[in-house]
Fold:
Amino acid sequence: MHIVQSGGRTERCCLWGGGSMAPQCALLVVLATLLAALETEQHAPKNRGYSWYTGPCTKPWWDHNLQFTPDRNSYGVNEELQLTCPGQLKPSFTSVKCVIQFQEPSSIAQYVWMGRNSTGAWIHIAGAVWCVETCQRPQWDTKLHLTPDLQEYRKNDAVMLSCPEGLQPSYTHVRCAEGNGALDDAGSVYRDTWQGWSSTGAWLRIEGTVQCLGPCTKPQWDHRLQFTPDRNSYGVNEELQLTCSGQLKPFFTSVKCVIQFQEPISIAQYVWMGKKASGVWTRIEKNISCKEKCQKPQWDSRIRLDPDQEFYNFNKTVMLTCPNGYWPSAMRITCVKPSPHQGLSAPQNIWFMKNSTGLWPLAVGDMRCVEVLEVVPGTLDVSSTSIKLNWTCRFPDACQHMQATCRLTGPSSPPCKAEEVTGVELLHGQMGTFTCPPLQPFTDYTVTISVPPSTVLFSWVIRTKETVPQKPEQLQLDASTGTLRWKALPSCQGEIIGYQLNITARALQDGGFLQIERLRLSSQTTEHPLPTYGPGTTYVVAVRGLTAVGPGAASWFHTNGTEMPDGCSRLVLHTSPSQGTAVLPLHPISQRPEAASEHQLLVAVTHNSTVLEDACSGELQPSNHSHPAEPYVAAVLNLSAPTDFMLGDGTRGHGFHNAPLHPGWDYTALLRLARRSPQAETFTCVCYSFSMGKWLLCPTPVPEGLSVSPLFPSHILARTGTAESRSSCGSRGNFCFPHPGSIYLL
Structure:
């Protein structure tokens, strides 16, 4: 017969041939199928979609010491059996059974063993069942309450102990250390071993019994002691205060009763503890008495006394120390009781200090921790590349072998990579100056003065000052939008607070046009559109980063175009060298011609384009009649319509002087319109370039009605006695006529 699974059913088929056995085989198949279905219905979970034919569970291979009841090689599903162990050992489960469980998500059936725990619930046995050591419930003080309260405990099971109100267990936590199946060195079984958790934080073997202890009895110390609270008994760990009458003092002012265990047998006993001035509790080895003592002085809180106590015996030397980098006013002090003098009552106690000479002078005032090394902040000199300080050592003995260093406070990283400063400078004497090697701007350095191996006398974190930033990089023009872009500057040499743009636009239309924009942009801005003018306009742009110190180096951008010549060709109507005047045809620069706006008329004795750009955007002064003249403001005009203006007529107005022009000088007049806002300055200038004619004195007069030589064209000669030129440009030369006493304009 062969068993197969098909379509969710288990079938048995006869493998032998037909003949007379065929009917019997068919009957067996039907009966076997019915039995399998019935068995599956009893043991398999419902609605699984499977029918199973199950056999017996094999006896598990657990601890070989285990005894099974009944003891067979196999067991039926859900058949409960009992487990025992030899001697005093106990199984981890006393009742077990085999059940069928289905493994998710495939729903494959498998045998598992379940064990009944102490509460009677069946749980899955994850590992093996072993014969283990156990401890019986200890027979200690009947007033003790055990949590959990069981008759048996397995090895290392922890149990919490408590007592009725007003009582304290000698141990609050215990555990089963060795069960009643353990063997000693001779091979004999000994009794249970329990351990208790001591106040020192260790498990101690309990040799005796654990009791509920009553309160601590009030100690029989000095009868002059006053207890607060004052009772005949005190609870464990209850803190109480001790005082004495008059000027007497107890050795401890705070005490408490605790439970301690006597080694090596760990017998619990009461002991009294006293709190030191440092807050540490220490065991009181002898009776506390009221004595006349010196109270701990209330000086600088940084001073540490050794020994550190609330009260000190007379004539006892006490050491004083301070934190690293400080020294106390005195290294040793002692307290004495003075005698009355001349009938006057003496103070209860006074402190003396031991100085460097070994004498014990009176400690006048408070002892304090003093800095060994003094660096006066007012002497600290910090620049963008250096740190310099003056130091003074107050205690020469503490300043031997001093050394000073400058180090980066923290690691640096790109783009502000700073090199570490190396080297150590040895300091000598009681005072001096220390200067750090060349440093990076706007960088934190730790300046340290120390005494090897580890005594730090001085340590400050100092940031070097800012300087101007490096020039911006990657300056590019987007031709499609006319926008100029650049890469943002890192705050390596100072905090970047913005960018400064100087945009100079020059054009030849209308004889000469110049516009200069000075812009202040935020630190987040890294692009700006260029102003749009007519064809042939050339642009020069300077981009600078700004820190609190000022602008840094500029990155330049130049547009391709015709090179602009010096000067300009805007028409000048008339010049008069003899009177020092020139007539200029002025037109308002205002974007709205009907609106009057304040224009400035500037005068520069040059045609140089660089000087003219500076003059157009500069803060100019009135004429100071210097020679050669500096660029100056000749007049302030409110222009709303075209007008002819006589430059150099000598008039004064608005605090400026329209000074006469000098014959033979080259001039450029700039009609300027300035617009200012908190973030931008725009200066637009119209240019007028001209030269005043040069007058020469010849040795002989020229006759009336001089005929013009072909070498001297008529448009460059003037009639004798006249002072006007027929030229708007005022051309000049170095010629002289042969008639002395006459003046010619060339």
Observations:
- DSSP finds two helices and 64 strands in the chain.
